[in-house]
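Quick question, first post here. What does this chain look like in 3D?
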Amino acid sequence: MRETPRSQVTASDSGTRPPQPRTGCALAHTPGASGSGTPHRSDGRPPQTPRGARQTDQNGRPGTIPPVPGRPSSFPLAPPVSRATPASFPSPFLLFSLFLLFLLFSLLAWLVSAAGSVSRADERLGRAMWGGLPGPGGEFLADLGNVQVAVPVLVLAVVYAAVRGRRAGLPRWWWPPLAAAVVMAAVPALVAPLKSLLARPGPPGAGPDGCFPSGHATTAAVAYGAAALLLLPAVRRAATRWLLGTGTVVLNAAVGAGLVVRGYHWPLDVVGGWLLSGLLLGAWVTVTGSRAGSAAAGSDRSGRGA
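> Answer (accepted):
Ran it through. Tokens below.
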């Protein structure tokens, strides 16, 4: 091996320049040979593969295949997010509420059909309320329970909910609107037989048919209540949601007051219609509650809510 004389470094040069590579050592090392590389490397390791030629590991980083054992991934792959909402059972509170509404409606129907003291007190209260509102005002409120007024409102809400759910790509978007239409169609199918079965006489001039439960009060409560429930997932602000619910309750109370003031029904007839509509709307929430919840989540994700 050829000896290369070392360069003489004086005391004045020390500390002013970095150590210089030795020419002889640099010539002795050839690329690819053992110990090749810069002259300062004395570990004898082979050179690394160029970065462009390195293979990628499973996470897309430059490395070898398989990846180096014991090297954790900084960004683990997240599981895919599914838009499907798992089926949920009705809450015990909802089932208990439906059972309580059924008991109250059955008890009230038995009391008015017996024509006892409760029925006579109800008739006295109805007579005291006659004329409590001006004729046009009471007639207008009572007309809000007509099929020609209440059902078109529900139809608009059904169309809006169906279009919105389809555009959002929700699973079974058609189910809540369809169920609302079925519940609305069930109102006359239930009210007419109950009126014939109980045969409670109505106020003078109300007609020969039975008046319990009130068909107008049931129609208004189901139509406006179902419309509010269909629109509720599209409302994001709590104040607007509260206003929608409160407005629906006040509207139905006004319809009931108009029916009694104008002498179309006794007060308990209206209450019976509200109890029956509560049963129908509760059944709608029972079968579509999870779908309405997914609709609300889809509105929050898409940012299309009001």
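Confidence is low (pLDDT under 50) at residues 9-15, 24-37, 72-87, 290-306.
The radius of gyration is 40 Å.
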